[in-house]
Design goal:
This protein has 15 helices and seven strands. By secondary structure, it is of the alpha+beta class. The chain has two domains: 212 residues, Hypothetical protein, domain 2 (Endonuclease III, domain 1, Orthogonal Bundle), CATH 1.10.340.30; 126 residues, Alpha-Beta Complex (Nucleoside Triphosphate Pyrophosphohydrolase). The strands form two sheets. Strands 1, 4, 5, 6 and 7 form a five-stranded mixed beta sheet that branches. The chain has a two-stranded antiparallel sheet with strand order 2-3. Helix 1 crosses helix 11 and helix 8 packs across helix 11. It is elongated and about 75 Å long. GO terms for molecular function: hydrolase activity, acting on glycosyl bonds. It is an enzyme of class 3 (hydrolase).
């Protein structure tokens, strides 16, 4: 089996028409690669178009405020990517005169750019013969060549990188890298791959050994913690409310949210009432507290399960520095809060 030729031939016949494949501009390739980390192509595509329309050059992105960037990123998740994206744009624009480093080694110096992203930009933009190794590549190589190295271990990456480099045609690294990633995304999928129609089926060791569903090996399991968030939706006589910025390190850094009470478990209205009084979120006398969702809404992150409840608190008079619903929607929120705002506002319009 000629792995590389078969792979590239398959790619040329089956590849998707993706906008970042029609350019070698490192800005657009970098933007797409950052967006597609931990994100499916279908989900990332609208964001790519939105960003390239709002920020057609790295200088435009650099000049934007962080709040503008976070707002446009809203819903894509892993918001540290957006913050690093913005900082790197500023560095490239203002320190490097808008020119991205032109090789793998120097690309690694950019904030938010790791081994995979540096390899992708170096090969796609500058035709450097460096292999990209992502989840798709792990899966393809581990199955075709029966590699049972635990991909959760850093040492395993080197095994796959060396194999990919050995297989890569040195004169066409970009197309090889695109091909192997696309093959993993469309053909050699994680569950129930169609091995019968696969161009690699004659030489695939995992298929011969009946190990397709055992590879790749990933032994390390992520520990997931449960957290309980109680968001307080204060509302005064003008239907204005208050929000706050998350300034602590951790999830949703620099995004906005409603005043928050985090508890160790799900709590009742009496506990929330006591917490509101003790924390003095507003100076206004409280008129009522209403549980807006009787069952906590589960929002899953990579390492955390957030159990979220929203509480409406009507207050007497006018909240100092309160904001109306129109202004509220202009701030960047975690998507779970933004969706709540959309639903809540739509409901109020219908009433």
């Amino acid at each position: 089996m000629d792995f590389s030729n078969s792979l590239i031939k398959w790619y040329l016949q089956n590849k998707r028409d993706l906008p970042w494949r029609n350019t070698s501009d490192p800005y657009f390739i970098w933007l797409s690669e950052i967006m597609l980390q931990q994100t499916r192509v279908a989900q990332g595509m609208p964001y790519f178009f939105a960003f390239t329309e709002a920020f057609p050059t790295v200088f435009d992105l650099a000049k934007a405020s962080e709040q503008e960037v976070l707002k446009l990123w809203q819903g894509l998740g892993y918001y540290s990517r957006a913050r690093n994206l913005h900082k790197t744009a500023q560095y490239v624009a203002f320190e490097l005169n808008g020119k991205f480093p032109e090789n793998y080694k120097n690309l690694l110096s950019l904030k938010g750019v790791g081994d995979y992203t540096a390899s992708a930009i170096a090969s796609f933009s500058f035709n450097e013969a460096v292999p990209v190794v992502d989840g798709n590549v792990f899966r393809v190589l581990s199955r075709v060549f029966d590699i049972d190295a635990d991909i959760s271990q850093p040492t395993s990456r080197k095994i796959f990188q060396e194999l990919a480099l050995e297989l890569m045609p040195k004169d066409t690294p970009a197309i090889f890298n695109q091909a192997i990633m696309e093959f993993g995304a469309l053909q050699c999928v994680p569950k129930s791959p169609d091995c019968g129609s696969c161009v690699m089926n004659e030489g695939c060791l995992a298929l011969k050994l009946n190990k397709v569903h055992q590879l790749p090996v990933k032994l390390k399991k992520t520990k997931v913690t449960n957290r309980f968030f109680n968001y307080l939706i204060f509302e005064d006589e003008e239907e204005k409310t208050i929000i706050q910025k998350r300034t602590n390190k951790g999830i949703w850094h620099n995004l906005y949210e409603f005043p928050l009470i985090e508890t160790e478990s799900e709590v009742d209205i009496e506990t929330i009432s006591i917490e509101i009084v003790q924390n003095r979120f507003v100076e206004n006398p409280l008129l009522s507290i209403i549980e807006m969702n009787s069952k906590a809404q589960m929002h899953k992150l990579s390492h955390q399960n957030l159990n979220i409840k929203f509480w409406k608190i009507e207050v007497y008079g006018f909240i100092e520095k309160g904001i109306n619903n129109s202004l509220l929607k202009t701030f960047p929120f975690p998507i779970v809060i933004y969706n709540f705002i959309e639903k809540f506002l739509d409901r109020k319009k219908d009433e």
